[in-house]
Amino acid sequence: MSPSPPNPPRRERASSPGRPAATGGPSGSSRSGSASSGSGSSGSSRPGTGSGSDGFTVSRNARYALYVLLFVLGALVGAAGALVQAAWLPAGLLLALLATAGLFYGGLRATGTQIGVAAAGGGWLLSVVLLSFGRPEGDGVFGGGVGELLFLFGGMGVAVMCATLSRLPRPPR
To answer: What percent of the chain has pLDDT above 70?
Structure first.
């Protein structure tokens, strides 16, 4: 039997902006740097906590409350956008899409994760879909024109763009 080859040297994985490089140890889970260094690493020593987008530790209940708030805000922006885009067609559509983009991007920046965009987008989509259903009497918010379709597909496109944005590096402190 021949001796086994020596273990290859450890390599460091490349770090993303604002995060320390992880060493490729035996388990691959050790990090160089501590969670309290303000580097924005999401590895916290206490269960139920995580770092926000600016490095502050946020409790699990506060994050869930923020997600619920973003869901409700998404529903309100969706309902307001549905009314505004139909009232003032060219400018109202632009205003509704800008408000939608502001909410989605704000959800991304406030939570630091794509879950913030998903929470706001879920509320927005739920309200827009519910408002698009007509009643048996024929009443409905959406009339089925081009503006309504642009609002629906434009809002979904903005949600996807905000969810797939890369995180910007934090300025040094």
So the answer is: 61
- Residue 155 makes CB contacts below 8 A (sequence gap 6+) with 78, 81, 96, 97, 100, 124, 125, 128
**DSSP 8-class letter at 27:** S
Question: Which of helix, strand or coil describes residue 52?
Answer: coil
Residue 47 DSSP SS3:
coil
Token digits of residue 121: 């987008």
Tell me what pLDDT residue 160 has: 92
Contact 48, 114 (CB under 8 A): no
Name the DSSP letter for residue 49: E
Radius of gyration of the chain (CA): 23
For residue range 69-109, what is the model confidence (pLDDT) as tens digits?
Answer: 999 999 999 999 988 887 777 888 899 999 999 999 999 98
Provide the H-helix boundaries in the chain: 60-87, 89-111, 114-132, 146-163
Answer for the pair 112, 66: CB distance below 8 angstroms, yes or no.
no
Amino acid symbol at 80 = A
